[in-house]
Automatic annotation (TrEMBL), chain A:
Name listed for the protein in its UniProt record: ABC transporter ATP-binding protein
GO MF annotation: an example: ATP hydrolysis activity
Keyword flag Acyltransferase: no
Keywords: Antibiotic resistance, ATP-binding, Nucleotide-binding, Transport
Subcellular location: Cell membrane
Membrane-topology descriptor: Peripheral membrane protein
Any one GO biological process: response to antibiotic
Main location: membrane
Organism per entry: Phycicoccus avicenniae
Residues of the ABC transporter domain: 5-230
Gene Ontology CC terms: plasma membrane
Pfam families: ABC_tran (PF00005)
Domain of life, source organism: Bacteria
SUPFAM superfamilies named in the record: P-loop containing nucleoside triphosphate hydrolases (SSF52540)
TrEMBL record, chain B:
Protein name (database record): ABC transporter permease
Classification via InterPro entries: ABC2_TM, ABC_2_transport, Nod_factor_ABC_transporter
GO biological process, one term: response to antibiotic
A Gene Ontology molecular function term of the record: ABC-type transporter activity
Annotated TM spans: 29-48, 60-83, 104-131, 137-160, 167-186, 222-243
Membrane topology of the entry: Multi-pass membrane protein
Localization of this protein: Membrane
Keyword terms, alphabetized: Antibiotic resistance, Membrane, Transmembrane, Transmembrane helix
Highest taxon, organism lineage: Bacteria
Gene Ontology CC annotations of this record: ATP-binding cassette (ABC) transporter complex
Sections of the chain in a coiled coil: none
Domain ABC-2 type transporter transmembrane positions: 65-231
Species of origin: Phycicoccus avicenniae
């Protein structure tokens, strides 16, 4: 079976900053893979490369076996994306926006059902500009889900959510993985990784410092202790 | 396996979404319809400034149509794109089946759709006030509106893709006000001395003079078209070179 995501020896340098420094990892379909790391570890650069908004300086990135850079619409339809800055037009209301995104797909998730699942119907009349951070997160997640993608790439999907919102996001992500979707999410919360992920990739300083199942990476110390040890190690 | 709808359907969906946003926004509606309509009525009913020998309503309607092009293709599109860029909308849409090409196609189609509404409303208002366009000038007028929309949209993207959103808002509105007086509403030949030559070399003067030449005199305005084409080409080249999708 094709992996959802394969990252091989990826380097990406921005001027004096090395964002990714030879990272390699993969994520299977039908599972949740958490890319865990502190701020500046290279998580968002990784997501940008996976969604085709950026291109590695060297190394290769494949999503569903395809190079995301300049990939065609058929590929993009199979990949649902949630970016950290949301990317929602500020003057739009949620349902027209989701209906519009749904109209780009042949067999989308019915918008009313999706909105109900994510509690969006409670603020359907609010424009994006006037929404709370948590409300925007839900719309952005709905935008990623609406095309019923085969791979979900989610950059910090639960940031800014209250515990109820976080639990709902985790449930949805779990359900999607259980029906065969390859979910890759970034987070700096080892709690989130422990709660929702099957596999973990720990990034620090643009390199993979650990990868495997949650149990493997957590080892005998537990994920929290392991995470701090791995990400507070000697300077790169 | 999940699949996208065909490219044409994606572009039409984006155009409909953008057109609804442009027409549903109160401030934008003011700039795209209310102010050009006020200019049309005001210029027609007043006795100053002197509009030359031609019938006042004919000159006023041509000017209002030129102003409408700048409202939608330049000011409206620059502000919408500038804020979408800052909010990350351009990045997100680039990852959907729409993609960057579809986004640009959708914007172009949305501008044309809104322009069609503007021409219908302002044209009807002009006709009600006694406007009688030269039949021979309808085709060159249509070509002028399309060329003007293309040139100003290119300049809008250059502005929106290089300046931060608040700056785009300020500059796009300021430019609209300045260009209004630099050949859009009034013939460049009616402006005093050096301003006249300046306005004729600007896209505003070229667009305004071209629409007037077509609709008032039934002429094919080759000279102003060259000026518009130069600005449009420069704007496109600049946008291709400097447009940043994230901001």
């Amino acid at each position: 079976m094709t992996d959802a995501v394969v990252v091989r020896d990826v380097r990406r340098v921005f001027g004096p900053v090395t964002a990714l420094d030879g990272a390699s990892w993969e994520a299977p379909l039908g599972a949740v893979t958490a890319v865990l790391g502190p701020n500046g570890a290279g998580k968002s650069t990784t997501v940008d490369c996976l969604v085709g908004l950026d291109r590695p300086g060297s190394g290769t990135v494949r999503v569903l076996g395809t190079d995301p850079w300049h990939a065609d619409a058929g590929h993009r339809a199979r990949v649902g994306v949630m970016l950290q800055d949301g990317g929602l037009p500020t003057t739009s209301r949620p349902l027209p926006l989701l209906h519009h995104l749904a109209a780009l797909h042949r067999d989308p998730w019915p918008v009313e059902d999706l909105a109900r699942r994510l509690g969006i119907d409670g603020f359907a009349r609010t424009t994006v500009r006037r929404m709370s951070g948590g409300q925007r997160q839900r719309i952005a997640l709905a935008a990623a889900l609406v095309g019923r993608p085969d791979v979900l790439l989610l950059d910090e999907p639960s940031a800014g959510l209250d515990p109820h919102g976080r639990r709902e996001v985790w449930r949805l992500v779990r359900e999607e993985a259980d029906r065969g979707v390859g979910v890759v999410l970034t987070t700096h919360s080892f709690e989130e990784a422990e709660r929702v992920a099957d596999g973990v990739v720990v990034l620090a300083g643009g390199r993979v410092v650990a990868a495997g199942t949650v149990a493997d990476v957590a080892g005998t110390e537990g994920l929290e202790t392991t995470y701090f040890r791995l990400t507070e190690g000697p300077p790169r | 396996m999940t699949r996208p709808v065909p490219p044409g359907a994606r572009v039409r969906a984006q155009a409909a979404f953008e057109a609804r946003m442009l027409l549903g926004n109160g401030e934008q509606l003011l700039v795209s319809l209310v102010l050009p309509a006020l200019a049309l009525v005001g210029l027609t009913l007043a006795s100053v400034p002197d509009l030359g020998a031609a019938c006042r309503v004919d000159v006023a309607t041509a000017g209002a149509l030129a102003l409408a092009v700048v409202s939608t293709a330049f000011t409206g599109q620059a502000i919408a794109t500038g804020f979408d860029r800052r909010a990350g909308v351009l990045r997100l849409l680039g990852t959907t089946p729409l993609g960057r090409g579809g986004l640009l196609g959708g914007k172009a189609l949305a501008v044309l759709a809104v322009l069609a509404v503007q021409v219908a409303v302002l044209g009807a208002l002009g006709l009600a006030l006694g406007w009688r366009p030269q039949p021979a000038g309808l085709l060159p007028a249509l070509l002028t509106l399309l060329l003007g929309a293309g040139s100003f949209a290119a300049l809008a993207l250059l502005l929106a893709g290089t300046v931060r959103a608040e700056g785009v808002l300020a500059v796009a509105n300021l430019v609209w006000v300045l260009l209004l007086g630099l050949g859009l509403l009034l013939p460049t030949s009616s402006l005093p001395g050096p301003l006249s030559a300046l306005a004729a070399a600007l896209p505003s003067g070229a667009l305004g003079d071209a629409v007037r030449a077509a609709l008032v005199d039934g002429a094919w305005p080759w000279g102003p078209w060259v000026v518009l084409l130069v600005w449009g080409t420069a704007g496109t080249a600049g946008a291709v070179r400097w447009f940043r999708w994230s901001g």
